[in-house]
TrEMBL record:
Gene: CD1E
InterPro entries: Ig-like_dom, Ig-like_dom_sf, Ig-like_fold, Ig_C1-set, MHC_class-I_related, MHC_I-like_Ag-recog, MHC_I-like_Ag-recog_sf, MHC_I/II-like_Ag-recog
Signal peptide: 1-20
Compartments reported by the entry: Cell membrane; Endosome membrane
Organism: Sus scrofa (Pig)
CDD domains the UniProt entry points to: IgC1_CD1
Domain of life: Eukaryota
Alphabetical UniProt keywords: Endosome, Glycoprotein, Immunity, Immunoglobulin domain, Membrane, Signal, Transmembrane, Transmembrane helix
Name of the featured protein: CD1e molecule
Length: 380
């Protein structure tokens, strides 16, 4: 516990300009959802000599940063993940984090018996702030031991979590002795974090506010029981996350609709599965209805077992095209026959007719190609 305050002091001196407290201005009055920026740290202590630490940065549910333990550097996972912080300021923060991630395990191990931590144990830290800070309590610092709430930073001191017992009480008493640690935490939570978050929201604005329309399709799940059907409505690739999906009969919402968790795609869009368990005879006439901000009020409605108009139209178009091709093809053949007959009759016209023959030959080849590709389409 002696090394840590020294490191913190060092950081305070180097980054004095960075750490000057600012009066926080409320963000634009726009009625947007408050977003958080948080740093997550997970440290697994297997024994006295083996520790593994993961550090990452998150804007809401989007991972923006990770900590590279080998290089001791921040990895920026998105082009705008530096927000509006200067290179200088980011370098200071990175230098601090490097010292922190290096010394944290050592300090915890040195004090594990005083803190009554028993190997193997897991520590999780979550610290950050919310956009539109109205009061200081919109920043947070929570610590967990063995997966349960252990302590938090409230105002300007460490407080044991409810139900964490005397062990947490003891840890807070120890921690509260270190004024410099508390000062560092205050600056990080109440100054650096809100400023960084504001800059991040501005830099990533176009990506955060992009509207991507969902694709939706229906499928049948494993039967929930004899004579019953599980109807599944898949909604995929939408952004932003809020979406309304319901199984309907006409205008009537089906209350038995089951909504899954909204799952992330790697590209930052979302996927959702919404199911309905119905008697096999009652499935027809049901539809899945999707409302999403990207659809501009034009809800997606998919009917179960209904004749979908699009595949029918495609089939019809293919048939019509094929028929047309056959007709055109036979017309050309007829023309060629009569032209060949004319050729034998009048050898003087062979020049232009040769051109015509070549022309026809090219057209025939083209038609053959079309027919083959259409046939392939047809067989699929
Ligand atoms: C500590 O834990 C690691 C990982 O489980 C293990 O490989 C190593 O042998 C352990 N060392 C000691 C001294 O117990
Ligand atoms: C970054 O942007 C925020 C919000 O617009 C602003 O308050 C802050 O001063 C900016 N910081 C820097 C270093 O430019």
């Amino acid at each position: 516990m002696f090394l840590l305050p020294m490191l913190f002091k060092g950081f305070l001196c180097c980054g004095a300009s960075v750490l000057a407290l600012q009066v926080l201005e409320p963000r634009h009055p726009a009625a947007e959802e408050p977003l958080s920026f948080r740093i997550l740290q997970i440290s697994s202590f297997a024994n006295h000599s083996w520790v593994c630490t993961h550090g990452s940065g998150w804007l809401g549910e989007l991972q923006t940063h990770s900590w590279d333990n080998v290089l001791g550097t921040i990895r920026f996972l998105l082009p705008w993940a530096q927000g509006n912080f200067s290179k200088e300021e980011l370098k200071n923060i990175q230098a601090f984090l490097k010292l922190y991630f290096h010394s944290f395990p050592q300090e915890v191990q040195a004090f594990s018996s005083q803190l009554q931590f028993e190997y193997p144990f897991e520590l999780q830290l979550s610290l950050g702030c919310l956009s539109r800070p109205v009061k200081a309590s919109e920043s947070f610092f929570n610590g967990a031991y063995q997966g349960s709430d252990f302590l938090s930073f409230q105002g300007n001191s460490w407080t044991p979590s409810l139900g964490a017992g005397s062990q947490a009480q003891n840890a807070c008493t120890v921690l509260n002795h270190y004024r410099v640690i508390k000062e560092i935490v205050e600056v990080a939570l109440y100054d650096i974090c809100p400023r960084f978050l504001a800059g991040l929201l501005q830099a990533g604005k176009s990506e955060l506010e992009r509207q991507v329309k969902p694709e939706a399709w229906l499928s049948k799940g494993p039967s929930p029981g004899p004579g019953r059907l599980l109807l599944i409505c898949h909604i995929s690739g939408f952004h932003p996350k809020p979406v309304w999906v319901m199984w309907m009969r006409g205008e009537q919402e089906q209350q038995a609709t089951q909504r899954g968790d909204i799952l992330p795609h790697a590209d930052g869009t979302w996927y959702l599965r919404v199911t309905l368990d119905v008697a096999a005879g009652e499935a027809t006439g049901l539809s899945c209805r999707v409302k999403h901000s990207s659809l501009g009020g034009h809800d997606i409605i998919l009917y179960w077992g209904g004749i979908s108009i699009v595949p029918t139209l495609i089939c019809l178009m293919v048939v019509v095209t094929l028929v047309l091709l056959v007709v055109v093809d036979s017309l050309f053949k007829k023309q060629r026959k009569s032209f060949l007959a004319a050729d034998t009759q009048d050898p003087r016209n062979s020049g232009p007719q040769l051109c015509l023959a070549q022309d026809l030959w090219i057209k025939d080849r083209l038609l053959e190609k079309w027919k083959t590709s259409l046939n392939q389409l047809w067989r699929r």
